[in-house]
Structure formats: C-alpha cells, structure tokens
Amino acid sequence: MRFPNKKGYFGRFGGRFVPETLISLLDDLEKSYYSLRKDKVFQGELDFYLKEYAGRPTRLYFASKLSRALRTLRVFLKREDLLHTGAHKINNTLGQILVAARMKKTRVIAETGAGQHGVATATAAALLGLKCDIYMGSEDIERQSLNVYRMKLLGARVIPVSSGSKTLKDAMNEAIRDWVTNVKDTFYLIGSVAGPHPYPEMVRDFQSIIGKEAGAQFKNKIGKLPDYLVACVGGGSNAMGLFHAFYNDKSVKMIGIEAAGCGINTSKHAATLGKGRIGVLHGSRENVLQDKYGQIINAHSIAAGLDYPGVGPEHCFYKETKRAEYFSVTDKEAVEGLKFLSQSEGIIPALETAHAIAYLPKLAKKVKGQKSVIVCLSGRGDKDVNSLKGLL
Ligand SMILES: *Cc1c(COP(=O)(O)O)cnc(C)c1O
Known about the structure:
This protein is an alpha/beta fold. The chain contains 16 helices and 14 strands. It has helices spanning about 20-35, 40-55, 65-70, 90-100, 115-130, 140-145, 145-155, 170-180, 200-205, 210-220, 235-245, 270-275, 315-320, 330-345, 350-365, 385-390; strands at about 10, 15, 60, 75-80, 105-110, 130-135, 155-160, 185-190, 230, 255-260, 275-280, 285-290, 325-330, 370-375.
C-alpha cells in the first residue's frame, strides 16, 4: 500500500485545507517534488550534503548500561543527536532547501515556536545562499532568545508576530499569509510531517532515512528485525522518520510518545493523539487540541519542540489503523528520563527525546521475555540545560 493517496490523504487524514489561492502553489510544489524524488542528480546532491555536511549515517549505538538497568529490553539508540545542529531537523531542511533551489526560489520562509526549526532552516538557507525570513511569536522570541540570536548570526531575519497568543499558531498564520503574497520567489519550508499535501509526504520522505539506516544497521549487528521502535512525537517527523521504513514489517511494533505536560487531565499538555479531536490545523485534517467551539488550544510541554497543538496526518492514520500505539509521559517523567540516560550512558538527550526514554521503564515491565528496541535519539540536550536548572 502507498500513502498518501493522490489527493494527499492518509485514510481520512491529511488533504489540503487552504485558501483557493494556495492550491496552484501546492500543485507546483507537488509536481516539482515528485519529479525530483526520482531525479538521480538531485538525490546525489542531497546524499552529498547529508553525508559531508550533516554527518550521516548516524550511529546505531547499543546502550548496554541502560539495557542492563531495564533488564528485559536491549536498547539501541539511533544517534540523530550527533548531526550538525544537534537534531534530526537538518535532514528535512536540507531536503527542502534543495527543492527550493531547484524550483528557482531565492527566499525561504518558515515559522518556528521554540526556534529549533528556525535555526535548522536558517542553517540550510545560509549553506545554499537563499534569503531567509523566520516568523516567530513575540512571546516565543522572549522565551527563546538564544535561538533568536543563532538565527540572526546565520543571516536570517526574525519577524515578530504579536497577534493572538503571540506564539506558534499565530506565527504559522503569518507565514502562510506571506507565502500567498510572495509566491513567485518564496518557498515555504515546513518543519514537521504536517501542513497541506504534499508537505507531510515530502518531510516524511526526507526523514525516513533514519529508519532505513537503522534497519540496515540493526540487521548488520543482530541479523533480524527489532521488536519495538520508540520515538517522541511533537509534529511527528522524527517518529515517522524512524517508523516509515518498517511499515510493512508487521512484527515490528511502533510506539510514539507524546507530551503529557502537567498531566493529560489538566489543561496543560500536548497529547494531541491521546486527547485531541479531528479538526483542521495548518492546512491538514488531523487530530487537534481544540475547545468545544473548535478553537485551537495552546499546547504545553517542558520540551519546546513537542509543544504543538496538532500532529501529522500519517500518525493519525497509524493510530486509527492500529499500526502504531501512542502513549504520553509527563514533564516530570521526562526530566527523570533525561537523568536516566545521562547518568547511565553519558548522553544528555534533548527534553523532547527524554519523553521516549522515560517510556522505556514502562515498556520493560510490559514485555514478556527479552525484547529489542530502537529508540530515536532525536536531539542532544545542551539546549535544555537552562530550563532544567532547579529541577534536578
Ligand atoms: C523539534 C524536535 C522534536 C519534535 O518534532 P517532531 O517533528 O515530532 O520530530 C523532537 N525532538 C527534537 C530534538 C526536536 O528538536
């Protein structure tokens, strides 16, 4: 089976819920991307930058101390944290910037919440010499000053958005407005497996190198398929990047971990698959955190990168068809997870990634016998040290 279908649907999720004026732009992008996907020269260029610039392939590391502590699990870490800029996001921004360049665009725009996607976009834009404007809520600009400074150093312009709640969803609206106005020279670079078709598919393709590599590396080491895949889910790109290559390997169980924030029965969490309802966000039909009038609710997580009120349509589809399972862990559990990996293996994970780690002791209790698990170590934790002060 191939997903999405021709109209960009994964089951009943996905599609294109955008103003009429954007449809022809998305058609253009789809056409360009589908032809570049088969273009050997383009793929060669992308491979070159992934390898020589970003640092692929990343290692699949057997975490023996962590595994000993967990007893029933043999844990393998897919080290996306070792990539340039410290997380998996660069896989996608390099891919899209090359598409933008091939489409003869001279400027990229993006929105960012915590600033991580903004930094990854500004990095790729600097590399290829494209102009870069990043929309960011003024509230977020204040909270994430270090990333704002990084983007500026990389030559990007950071445009503050002070409408609405002054956060990610408002920045998203402004970025789309900009795109409609400046279509001719501008490429809109989306940061996760979200947005209108073809973005969820394109971003998934760019990130699926994670699972392709991990599968081959695991086979090399162990000689078979892993039993479990575990990854954290914000918009869902690192998780889908790991999961997708294993879709047809039915024995491989996939588990996505959302942010339960202060608890999923409070109003402060980001468990979109656990607690959201079907709605439209960012041009796509998916699970969304919304109030009874359908207004988007701001998400909360200690991990800025999981703080997103929607989730990619392919995950909604995997959940509905039971191909993957989704659970959530709280802010507090995530901090414990971060300490657990730091002190058992000497690897400080990002707070986002720490959600996946925090789930491992729960999984260890559930399984029968010994099982193997690949965890997507989506990013490194240096960026989070400040927000951890006082919590350790
Ligand atoms: C942005 C980010 C995430 C969340 O985004 P996904 O699209 O769900 O992968 C997870 N981990 C890290 C380190 C991030 O920077």
